[in-house]
Amino acid sequence: MTTRRAAYRRRWSPAAFWRGCLSPWRTRRLLEAHLLVLLVLTAVASTALFLSCRQAQRGAEALASREAPAVQGLAATRLAALRAGQEAHALVNMNLIGVTGSGETYRSQLSAADQGLSRIADRTDQDLGTVKGLLATYSNSLGLATSLYRDQPLMREQKLQEAKSLLTRETVGLAPRLDALQRVQMEHAEATATMGRWQRGGWWVAELALAAVALTLLSALFVLRDRCGRDWNPWLLAAFVLTVLLAVVPLTTAYSTEDDLGGALKDLRLITEVSRQGGGPGLAEAQQRVTEESEDVRHKTAEGAWTDTVYRGALVGSLLAIVLPALGLGLRLDNDYWRRR
Fold first, then answer.
1. Of residues 73, 113, 82, the one with CA closest to residue 271
2. Which of 19, 69, 83, 228 is found 20 to 30 A from 134 (Cα to Cα)?
3. d(CA 323, CA 154)
4. Distance from C-alpha of 102 to C-alpha of 125, rounded to nearest angstrom
5. Contact (CB, 8 A) for 211 and 49
6. Three-class SS of residue 58?
7. What sections of the chain are H helices per DSSP?
8. 3-state SS assignment for residue 25
9. What is the mean pLDDT of the segment spanning 107-113?
10. Is 35 within 8 Å of 328 (Cβ atoms)?
11. Which of 20, 66, 322 is nearest to 186 (CA)?
12. Around Cβ 154, how many Cβ atoms within 10 Å?
């Protein structure tokens, strides 16, 4: 009974099924077919994996080095410009103009806004010329109101109103223009950090091709043991382990990085909302919150920096995935068949 059961299992086992599927093929042709299929599949898998990893790496780098700093800088510039106007009006209302050190706060805010625009210019392709000109005119109006016309109330009030108009005028004012720039920059950041349809398609192609490579390697190992009486081929075993690693590690890294970048995008949206307030006593708190959230964004984008290491590893691994099966089957065919012609 036990013998019958063992014979039944051998007859209907996966090995018996695959042996029956391969039975019409001669061993040499079978190994050559495996070699050809492996070369094609590994080439497809390596190309798709290389392009997918490269795209993920570029997205993480672009968000960390350009898009996120630009959004943060525009938010900080807008709040600094609003804060400068608020502080200048406070000086006038409290009759502190002319008191030593009384204008340092609004001047430092104007300086921060100007420096922020200078840093943003290197991180965005948007035209900042108009905004820089408005900021310069706005700074000049505040300076005239608090310095040149400090003893002429009417002219001082006129310059303050002029500065307020330059800052808040609908559509063409400094604050609305910065808000529009920030909205466009936020769209760029979302497009950069989000995995699109073509990117997901690339990962699907890479994973399916790697799965097919793994199955073909198992089939080649089976043929070598079943028909050639050979032990496990070390080249093919190494290729199989490498294929599994290539299927798991880059994909896991890509989706982990996407989660980190998604968290950074949420923080950037929060920074954008905080910076859109029109003024009031909460500007200092808003600036502090933007600073804190910006630090969180830097931490989250820095966590995606290891995609560069994985990308380089995937590149080397993809090349080895092509070479190892070619060596394993090529050497065996050369020793057993090609030299005997």
1. 73
2. 69
3. 83
4. 38
5. no
6. helix
7. 2-11, 14-22, 27-62, 68-93, 104-121, 129-143, 153-168, 174-193, 197-227, 234-275, 283-303, 307-336
8. coil
9. 88
10. no
11. 66
12. 8
The CB density around residue 199, as the number of other CB atoms within 10 Å, is: 17
Q: Are 57 and 307 in contact (CB under 8 A)?
A: yes
pLDDT higher for 8 or 271? 271
Minimum mean pLDDT among 189-203, 236-250, 322-336: which range? Answer: 322-336
Q: Decide: 57 and 311 in contact? Cβ < 8 Å.
A: yes
As given in the structure block, the two tokens for residue 237 are: 């075993």
The label of the residue with tokens 């950074």 reads: 264
**Among 142, 184, 204, residue whose Cα is nearest residue 272:** 184
* Closest alpha carbon to 245 in 166, 334, 324: 324
Using CA atoms, how far residue 132 sits from 107, 129, 308, 310, in Å, is 16, 5, 36, 41
What would the two tokens of residue 19 be? 């042996």
